[in-house]
Amino acid sequence: MRATYLYGPGDVRVIDVPDPVIHDATDAIVRVVRACVCGTDLHPYHSMAPTPQGSSMGHEFVGVVEDIGGDVHTVKMRDLVIAPFVWSDGTCDYCREGLHTSCRHGGYWNAGGVGGGQAEAVRVPFADGTLVPVSVEENSPLIPSLLTLSDVYGTGYHAVRAARVSAETTVTVIGDGAVGLLAVLSARQLDARRVVLMGRHKDRTDLGREFGATDVVAERGEEGIAAVRELTGGDGTHVVIEAVGHMPAYQQAVGVVRPGGVISRVGVPQYKNAPIGFGSLFGPNITLTGGPAPVRAYIDTLLPGVLDGRVEPGKVFDREAGLDQIADAYRAMDSREALKVLVRP
Amino acid sequence: MRATYLYGPGDVRVIDVPDPVIHDATDAIVRVVRACVCGTDLHPYHSMAPTPQGSSMGHEFVGVVEDIGGDVHTVKMRDLVIAPFVWSDGTCDYCREGLHTSCRHGGYWNAGGVGGGQAEAVRVPFADGTLVPVSVEENSPLIPSLLTLSDVYGTGYHAVRAARVSAETTVTVIGDGAVGLLAVLSARQLDARRVVLMGRHKDRTDLGREFGATDVVAERGEEGIAAVRELTGGDGTHVVIEAVGHMPAYQQAVGVVRPGGVISRVGVPQYKNAPIGFGSLFGPNITLTGGPAPVRAYIDTLLPGVLDGRVEPGKVFDREAGLDQIADAYRAMDSREALKVLVRP
């Protein structure tokens, strides 16, 4: 089959690899119907150390089950399934607590002999724990929105859940990528009183307004901080969602959070150390939360709104590409030409 | 009157200063009945830049009201009062939310023309908002426990409240100072399932066991982390209270917190930057919370237990000194000879 590999900065190739086969009795083989490129994929796209063997890519996909191991029970042949960006056994204590990203037997795609979603097919470990079957045809117009449940919608939702957003809460979302925009949507779903979106791409912030942003701040850094503070009577907002992962976004978050408030990070941090001392987090009693979203835990909650059309998170896809054009999809997302690219294998 | 000033590292002096007088109509003058030395006082005792004018000291005191301004209504002459370690107006939105440490008109003692508690008397701004009158005589044996409501008991309680400790929660407390020990007591009050105290002074950890610690780990650093992990099946505890403030304690907290758990800091951080990236907090979805405790918010909750003797937080005082011996009190606490010194002005 064809699969996407990254060999070094900017070096995306689609190559031939062996078809995946059942390895463990709890595996399923899923033919990929739609995958996509993630903002997170752009981090290694910028900075991975070149390797001759490359790394398989993609952690978001919707597909059809084409084979199952002898110990797979809740997932059936020909099911259309959503695959979360982490696979998990679904039975350990962490999974039962809803923290599937810390599953005792789970893991990330593209590691340890498991491939990625930017391919024609994937071997899925712990199929019963990992995959969520949906009664939808593979040519349904709902597919893009269902695909966001693999990662970006669940990640935006995790950000606001971890921050305990409620009707009393004012929220700033830093970042107008897919996760930031779906954090806006999620904040509205939890009835946030006000949602300030910080982003400078008008087509994206327009979608953010459609998703429920009440204010948009295009400035960044100190200017952006001043603008949010002016909007909020000098205080900042109760919650700040950091959906970027770079240090300036973190600094911006510290700058616009209200005393006693919460910074919730879902952009994968591209730094190890950051200010958390008296002058940043401690003095004003700021809580820092977030992490990789256990999206598997949220699919049951978010799926009904997608199925009945109340929300359309799939609007974050503004471009489509065949698998053979995926290198151009990376380029277009990296240059901010495209917000998020849907990939047809 | 006599008051304690710090002039540089190790240089504590008791000097004559003018008696405090009413300055604003919302002020009260409080004659100090008992004060004490705080672990936090040891930070400037180690490292303050020497100054010829010195800094007044002390932020914990219980006293008797000797004068009030024309606009003081809930506090009366001759009331015995508890003074929180931050003064606050009691009426602004932050105070109403219970975050008195961020009061819009409040402040810390020993700054801006307001003196400190290690003195014969103190001018208290916003007396109605700041002071809590208690129907107790000034020679009551309850005074030491009431004095802990100024800071260390409320601070320990803040740590466990911010971390949302409940009957489902396992807790590690790092630090066997007064705040750590009272975090143990507070965790037991919130029914924590298990409380591991990390400390290496046996007399203190014995008091910790009396306050409710179920386990004591004397090792520090990597050995200490390994010991807590061994006690907890390899996982660490849901909550870690960091009651020290130095970087090794923070690193220890990161080492013993369970995925999805909470690190709650109440030791004033003596660092600006620290690890919060993928490998420390982000990957395992660790929440970092805490800050200076709004102890004023907790006095109503904690006072009944002190008054009826259900808890005796005053047991953290293991030495008494007159004001003129306060330099020796600092020395004894700094050398860990004394846990916490009660001061009689």
Q: What percentage of residues of chain A falls in helices of 4 or more residues?
A: 25-40%
Enumerate how many helices of chain A there are, as a single number.
12
This entry's quaternary arrangement is homodimer
Arithmetic mean of pLDDT of chain A: 97
Low confidence ranges of chain A: none
- End-to-end C-alpha gap of chain A: 10 Å
The secondary-structure class of chain A comes to: alpha/beta
Overall form of chain A? globular
State the total count of DSSP E strands of chain A: 19
Task: Kindly report the greatest chain-chain contact and the residue count on each side.
Answer: A-B, 34 and 34 residues
Strand content of chain A: 25-35%
* CA gyration radius of chain A, whole angstroms: 20 Å
- Major sheet size, sense and barrel closure of chain A: 7 strands, mixed
Commentary on this structure:
The structure is a homodimer of 345-residue chains. Chain A is an alpha/beta fold. Chain A contains twelve helices and 19 strands. In chain A, the strands form four sheets. In chain A, strands 3, 5, 6, 9, 10, 18 and 19 form a seven-stranded mixed β-sheet that branches. In chain A, strands 13-12-11-14-15-17 form a six-stranded parallel β-sheet, sandwiched between helices. The longest helix of chain A is centred in the middle third of the chain and has 12 residues. Chain A is globular, with a radius of gyration of 20 Å. The model of chain A has no long low-confidence stretch (mean pLDDT 97). Chains A and B meet through strand 15, strand 16, helix 10 and strand 17 of A and strand 15, strand 16, helix 10 and strand 17 of B. Strand 16 of chain A pairs antiparallel with strand 16 of chain B, so a sheet runs across the interface.
